[in-house]
Every structure is written in C-alpha cells, then in structure tokens.
C-alpha cells in the first residue's frame, strides 16, 4: 500500500480543474489514506470512492461520513463516473488502467488519470493503452514519498512518477509541482 501525500493530491486536483478534466462524477478507486478524496472534497468536486483494503474502508467511511466500500477496482464499478482519478498498485497498474478506461469510454466526455511510474508507458505490455486515444504524462516533481502501512518516510521515494492522463480530447502537457 502506498498513500498519496496530501499536498500532491491537492496539486493534482487543482491541475485537473485548470484543464477542465473533472467532469460530473469523479471516482477514486484506490482511496487508501484518503488524500485524493480530501482534495476532491476541498475542491467541491462531486465524488465517490472505494478502497482496496477493508481497514481503509472503515477509516475513510468514518472520516468522510459516507460509505467508502472496500472493493476490487478491476471489476465493473456500480457508479457511472466521468472521471477516474487514482494511485493504483504499481504491480498491476496496467489492469487498473484498462478497467478504468472500460468504465468511462462510453461517455462523450471522460478522463482517466493515474499516478504511475514514469517508465509505465515504456513497457510493451501497456502499448495498447496508448493507441487510438488522447493521452499525456504530467511529470511530478519533486519525487514524492508515498506512505502507508509498512512504509516509512525515509527511503520510499525511489521511483520517478507522473500523472498519466487519458482523455476524450487532446491533452496538454504540464508538470505537477507540489
């Protein structure tokens, strides 16, 4: 588990608002520590969330005063989001991106944005995710330290990451500074 730093989550939400990418309902399928959900809430974005871990579900449900279920983000979601924004497990991130794209692409206006290692787009097994769709990578700097169970503040920032953005229209490039 790797939790997104709160300042980074707020910077990502602000950048996506600047680019008019938070349309209608936004789903955060990897809510974990709740930083992205809090940033959406603070920005007054209509949101739903789920998390991969039951313990996180209980904590976040209490924190936000509404149910945030523990569910597999790879199965079809019960919501019909326009935007999906998350920080998936890097070990099977391609599956999470595929599931997210399936969930939104029937919409006339949609965005999928995931925090991923910069190297994600260089892997042949992910090549089909970049065909016939508008996409961009927004580098994130400085390199974030992800926290969570079993992690420490020291030594976890070993991977350069970016916000991979898939969209129904061409996507401008930008850098997420936080």
If you had to describe this structure to a student in words, what would you say it looks like?
- The protein has 178 residues and is of the alpha/beta class.
- The chain has a single domain (6-177), classed as Vaccinia Virus protein VP39 (Rossmann fold).
- Helix content is 25%, strand content 19%.
- The chain has 4 helices and 7 strands.
- It has helices spanning 6-18, 35-42, 54-64, 93-104, and strands at 26-28, 47-49, 83-86, 111-117, 134-141, 161-167, 176-177.
- It has a 7-stranded mixed sheet with strand order 2-1-3-4-6-5-7, with helices on both faces.
- Helix 4 links the parallel strand 3 (83-86) and strand 4.
- Helix 1 crosses helix 2 (35-42).
- The longest helix has 13 residues, at 6-18.
- It is globular, with a radius of gyration of 15 Å.
- The two termini are 21 Å apart.
- The model has no long low-confidence stretch (mean pLDDT 91).
Topology:
Blueprint: H1 6-18, E1 26-28, H2 35-42, E2 47-49, H3 54-64, E3 83-86, H4 93-104, E4 111-117, E5 134-141, E6 161-167, E7 176-177
Helix pairs in contact: 1-2
């Amino acid at each position: 588990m790797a939790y997104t730093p709160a300042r980074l989550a707020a910077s990502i939400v602000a950048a996506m608002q600047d680019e008019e990418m938070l349309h209608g309902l936004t789903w955060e399928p990897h809510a974990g520590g709740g930083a992205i959900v809090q940033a959406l809430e603070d920005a007054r974005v209509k949101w739903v969330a789920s998390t991969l871990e039951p313990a996180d579900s209980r904590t976040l449900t209490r924190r936000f005063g509404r149910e945030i279920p523990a569910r597999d983000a790879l199965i079809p979601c019960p919501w019909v989001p326009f935007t999906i924004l998350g920080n998936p497990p890097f070990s099977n991130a391609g599956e999470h991106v595929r599931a997210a794209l399936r969930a939104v692409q029937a919409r006339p206006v949609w965005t999928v944005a995931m925090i991923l290692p910069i190297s994600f787009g260089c892997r042949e097994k992910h090549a089909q995710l970049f065909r016939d769709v508008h996409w961009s990578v927004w580098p994130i700097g400085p390199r974030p330290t992800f926290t969570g169970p079993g992690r420490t503040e020291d030594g976890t920032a070993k991977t350069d990451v970016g916000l991979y953005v898939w969209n129904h229209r061409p996507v401008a490039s930008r850098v997420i500074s936080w």
